[in-house]
Amino acid sequence: MAVSVIIADDQEMVRTGFRMILESQPDIDVVADVVDGEEALEAVERHRPDVLLLDIRMPKLDGLEVTRRLSALATAHPERGERPRIVIVTTFDLDEYVHTALRNGASGFLLKDASPAMLVEAVHAAAVGDSLISPAITVRLLRDMAHTGSGPPEPVKQPAEPLTDREADVVRCAARGATNAEIAAELYVSLSTVKTHLANVQLKLAARNRVEIAAWAWESGLATGGP
C-alpha cells in the first residue's frame, strides 16, 4: 500500500517541487498540499495521511503549533488512531523552534535543499516509525537541544533499566548522526541487531522515536563518551 503524504508549506514552488519528487515514487501518494497551519490540520483530519511534511514558518499556525496540537490530540484521543508522522522541512539549519517540534514527536528534520533521494528516504523512514535528520546538522541540532535554552536545565530522564554496553554504543553512534547501516558497519554487527538495540532503548527510555533517543544521549552526556 502506498504511503499517503500531505505537504504543508506557504511557498508554491516548494510544494510543487516536493510533489513532483514524491509522486515520482510508485509507493508514495501525495493526497494534498496546503499553504498554512490551519489548512494542514484540516487536511490531516480529512485525509488521515501516513506522513505530514511540515514547514516551520507558515501563516495562521506555524509548524511548531501544528505539531503540538497533533501530539496533544493523539494523547487525549488515542481511540482516533495514530496521528501522522511529521517530518519538519525548513530553510534554516538550526531553527530556534525545531528542537521543540522534535520533542513534540516529529519524526525527522530536513533542510529544503536536501537531495530528492533524502526527501524520499525521510518519508519512507517516517512511515515505518523511524527518523531521519539531515546528517549535516544532526550533531549541531542535538547538541543545542541539550546545551542551550533559558533557565536552569531540566533533569535528565533516567531509563527504566540501565542500557547494556552494546546499547550504549549504538545510541552514541545514532546521536552522532550515523544511519543504521553505518552503525552496523562501525560496530561489526548486523543491521537487524542495530534495529533491535534501538527498539530496546526506545522502550527503556519511553521515547517516541529515534530523535528522542539521540536527544537523550546528548542531554545525558552519553553522546560525548567513547567508543
From TrEMBL:
<keyword id="KW-0805">Transcription regulation</keyword>
<dbReference type="InterPro" id="IPR001789">
    <property type="entry name" value="Sig_transdc_resp-reg_receiver"/>
</dbReference>
<dbReference type="GO" id="GO:0000160">
    <property type="term" value="P:phosphorelay signal transduction system"/>
</dbReference>
<dbReference type="InterPro" id="IPR058245">
    <property type="entry name" value="NreC/VraR/RcsB-like_REC"/>
</dbReference>
<dbReference type="InterPro" id="IPR016032">
    <property type="entry name" value="Sig_transdc_resp-reg_C-effctor"/>
</dbReference>
<dbReference type="InterPro" id="IPR000792">
    <property type="entry name" value="Tscrpt_reg_LuxR_C"/>
</dbReference>
<feature type="domain" description="Response regulatory">
    <location>
        <begin position="4"/>
        <end position="127"/>
    </location>
</feature>
<protein>
    <submittedName>
        <fullName>DNA-binding NarL/FixJ family response regulator</fullName>
    </submittedName>
</protein>
<dbReference type="GO" id="GO:0003677">
    <property type="term" value="F:DNA binding"/>
</dbReference>
<feature type="domain" description="HTH luxR-type">
    <location>
        <begin position="156"/>
        <end position="221"/>
    </location>
</feature>
<dbReference type="Pfam" id="PF00072">
    <property type="entry name" value="Response_reg"/>
</dbReference>
<dbReference type="InterPro" id="IPR039420">
    <property type="entry name" value="WalR-like"/>
</dbReference>
<keyword id="KW-0238">DNA-binding</keyword>
<dbReference type="Pfam" id="PF00196">
    <property type="entry name" value="GerE"/>
</dbReference>
<dbReference type="GO" id="GO:0006355">
    <property type="term" value="P:regulation of DNA-templated transcription"/>
</dbReference>
<dbReference type="InterPro" id="IPR011006">
    <property type="entry name" value="CheY-like_superfamily"/>
</dbReference>
<keyword id="KW-0597">Phosphoprotein</keyword>
<feature type="modified residue" description="4-aspartylphosphate">
    <location>
        <position position="55"/>
    </location>
</feature>
<keyword id="KW-0804">Transcription</keyword>
